[in-house]
Amino acid sequence: MERGKMAEAESLETAAEHERILREIESTDTACIGPTLRSVYDGEEHGRFMEKLETRIRNHDREIEKMCNFHYQGFVDSITELLKVRGEAQKLKNQVTDTNRKLQHEGKELVIAMEELKQCRLQQRNISATVDKLMLCLPVLEMYSKLRDQMKTKRHYPALKTLEHLEHTYLPQVSHYRFCKVMVDNIPKLREEIKDVSMSDLKDFLESIRKHSDKIGETAMKQAQQQRNLDNIVLQQPRIGSKRKSKKDAYIIFDTEIESTSPKSEQDSGILDVEDEEDDEEVPGAQDLVDFSPVYRCLHIYSVLGARETFENYYRKQRRKQARLVLQPPSNMHETLDGYRKYFNQIVGFFVVEDHILHTTQGLVNRAYIDELWEMALSKTIAALRTHSSYCSDPNLVLDLKNLIVLFADTLQVYGFPVNQLFDMLLEIRDQYSETLLKKWAGIFRSILDSDNYSPIPVTSEEMYKKVVGQFPFQDTELEKQPFPKKFPFSEFVPKVYNQIKEFIYACLKFSEDLHLSSTEVDDMIRKSTNLLLTRTLSNSLQNVIKRKNIGLTELVQIIINTTHLEKSCKYLEEFITNITNVLPETVHTTKLYGTTTFKDARHAAEEEIYTNLNQKIDQFLQLADYDWMTGDLGHKASDYLVDLIAFLRSTFAVFTHLPGKVAQTACMSACKHLATSLMQLLLEAEVRQLTLGALQQFNLDVRECEQFARSGPVPGFQEDTLQLAFIDLRQLLDLFIQWDWSTYLADYGQPNCKYLRVNPKTALTLLEKISREMKDTSRKNNMFAQFRKNERDKQKLIDAVAKQLRGLTSSHHS
Length: 815
Description:
The structure is a single chain. By secondary structure, the chain is mostly helical. About 70% of the residues lie in helices and about 0% in strands. The chain has helices at about 1-25, 35-40, 45-150, 155-170, 180-235, 295-305, 310-325, 335-360, 365-390, 395-415, 420-450, 460-470, 475-480, 495-510, 520-545, 555-570, 570-580, 595-620, 640-655, 660-685, 695-710, 730-740, 740-750, 760-780, 790-815; strands at about 460, 485. A two-stranded antiparallel ribbon has the order 1-2. The longest helix has about 110 residues, at about 45-150. It is rod-shaped and about 245 Å long. One of its GO terms (biological process) is Golgi to plasma membrane transport. Component of the exocyst complex involved in the docking of exocytic vesicles with fusion sites on the plasma membrane.
């Protein structure tokens, strides 16, 4: 029972499944029916399914048949209408065929136009593709053209940048084109070309800099001069907010970036064209004259190309060579100041350029390299200056050279270069300057002394008096009270020499300016130089004048007076130096002036020359003496030559009124002594072998004239008979012979108070022998064949006896 229920249940399920499959077949598209049929064959009841399928087909056939039967009349009607339509369709076909033929005929031109349009469209598409490709290539070509233009215009650094963009940005986009491969192959060549051309520009720049270093240096030194003048003005004004110009103001820092559009980067010349500036216009900066773009471009180019070290080595090597050329002075540099100026300008220009390169590039030059060059330049410059300055004989040129060296040092000091050695060398040149000054002033003094009239300066008005007093410190109350016209005691060379000494001191002071010396050092330098001027130059000039052959007594007297006043003026020279140096004389180690000694020495030399000159004049008068030693006549007046000599001595000693008393007295005593000695020599002269008592009387008259001159007091200040003592030897000798007082002489000889104390036995013997010879000759002539008369024989015996005793006294005196 249960089995039957189970079979019945399964049968119902199978029927439901078949029904579902049939519905799917009816509703499903024929292309997708495969899976449905597969499910039927997969089961075991496909036979039953087939039966149901047949049953379903028959049912549908019956429904179709019913439907056909229901619509048959309509189908017939439709066939009838269709037949009617066929005729109309044939007509329509004929019309369509005719229309088509006409259309084809008419459409041939359209087809041709469409073909042409097709070709145009194809060309347009090709053109568009070509334009696209060209638009891709054009930037490459433009960049390459730009590169070529930059190469032509020598804009090498921008050209290198363009080359980099072309290589890394543009060429990779069109690398499959053949012309791009050509460009790629040319890129290394272009780099080398840029490298070579930039190096060539650098060489041109270096050559241009070498040629124009003096212009650069001249401008830099003008700037330094202007700055110094400005500083001096500021120092003279209240120092409110004033500061020294910094090094940054000394030059203009150029921008190291070289813009491709910059007009300056388009130029490769080293020196810009700058018109000469007027003196009253501002001097352009030294770097305003220089276009450094070739250096910067070449440095950047070599840096980009990885050859910076090569560039640095080349630049430094070339600049070292140029430094050696700049430091080689011209052989005639010492002849003019322009030679020194050009030499300094070139050195300054060289180091201004190097300093600017140091501060506007990174590592092209460094401080060690600059210091090395400067040390070399400093040593060579100092050696050259020592050599060439030694040839300078003009103190003005030496002073100008010193000022130029100071400006040279100040200019380089602004740029940070040590210049102490230059100032040390200036101290050496200072000694040379002093020597050249001494030579110059030797000529000045010589000219003053040669042109002087050696006469007191006459003044006829108060204006002239004040003018002389203004030139020379002189005070004399008595002279001020005297009415005009009046005379100063000294001649014109006194104020002239005094003023020239002051001018010399000013000249020494000029050299010490700007040498960074203390007041004490300046004072010491001036005093030492002035001492040399006084003790050597002026002293030699005075000595030369004093020793001149044609110098007169009047001139010598005036020289003594002049040197006396110059000696008194030395204290004013001390004050003058103190005023200009602000160093008190009491300061420790202050050098004292030796002018007093100089003028004393000159005065003593003049005094000696006066004595010598007087003696020479006396000798000249004595040469006119014409004694007749054999005369028997007794004279009644002094000899003419002696009268003239005494008159000369009187006039001469009258001039000595302005001399110091001691000098005049010494001169007068010296003249009298020399006169007495000369007369004695004249009397005892060996050539005069005989003389008469009459001649001795005439000689006595001359000596009396001399004694009268001595008693008249030609020079005040002598005590009584002091001047007469010069003739005492002659007087006692003459008295002995004229009075024939031999008994007294021989009896009192050797006693301190004897009458003839000054008579030497030898002198008396010589003169006695001359008289004895004359007496013998006279007696022989008068008594040729007779015996001597008794008195003459007695006198001769007396003479012989006296002579014998005198010889004994002489021999005992010598023993």
